[in-house]
Amino acid sequence: MDTNGKILFEEAQLFRVKWLWILIVLCIVSSTGITVGLAILEKEKPHEAIVALAIVVPIEAIILYLFYITKLETAITSEGIYYRWRPFQRKGWFIPKVDIETAVLRDGPALSYGHHWVPGYGWVNNTGPGKGIQLKLRNGKKIFLGTQIPTPLQTALEKITTVLQKV
Q1: Is 140 left (phi over 0), alpha (psi -120 to 50) or beta?
Q2: What confidence tens digit (pLDDT) does each residue in 14-46 have?
Q3: Where are the beta strands (DSSP E) in 108-147?
């Protein structure tokens, strides 16, 4: 990730929540199994099942691969905070340190992963359960950045801003 300033903290988080992976794999296995089962029962039209499998299996493989390689990259520099979702964003977002009104170390929203909006948290960016930094910007926007290693993140934020609070 292209950043400006001295790097104080870097993290790359992958989606590695067991129950989520179990759910994804079960969906893939069940849809493939149902299609194969129907093909066996319908002996007159096996070519339809083969066409369905030829369409569904590659799509499911692509989705599985994207879940596997997707990661949230976060960097805190002397200039501010950078974050992006790889491979979907090349550049990502930048929050200048002067735009941060408050920063609070807190637990992330329950069962809420990815990039989306959650009431009380604003825009949430996380890959699993755990802690993160709740930012409130001077323009009123809220951004939550999840982390697997909260202590180094907190230390880096304390170096660039004096607004870090503990809940």
Answers
A1: left
A2: 988 788 889 989 988 888 888 788 777 777 677
A3: 114-118, 122-126, 131-137, 142-146
* Positive or negative: CA dihedral 22, 28, 31, 34: negative
Q: What is the pTM of this model?
A: 0.80
Q: Is 83 exposed, middle or buried (0-12, 13-18, 19+ CB in 10 A)?
A: buried
Which residues neighbour 36 within 8 Å (Cβ) at sequence distance 6 or greater? Answer: 49, 53
Q: What's the CA gap between 3 and 73, in Å, rounded? A: 12
User: What is the CATH T-level fold of the domain 7-14+73-166, as seen in this structure?
Assistant: PH-domain like (2.30.29)
The residue ranges of every structural domain in the chain are 7-14+73-166, 18-69
> Could you tell me if 136 and 161 are in contact, meaning their C-beta atoms sit under 8 angstroms apart?
no
pLDDT, tens digit, for every residue of 88-143?
A: 988 889 999 899 998 889 999 987 888 999 999 999 999 988 899 999 999 999 99
Residue whose token pair is 């990815």: 114
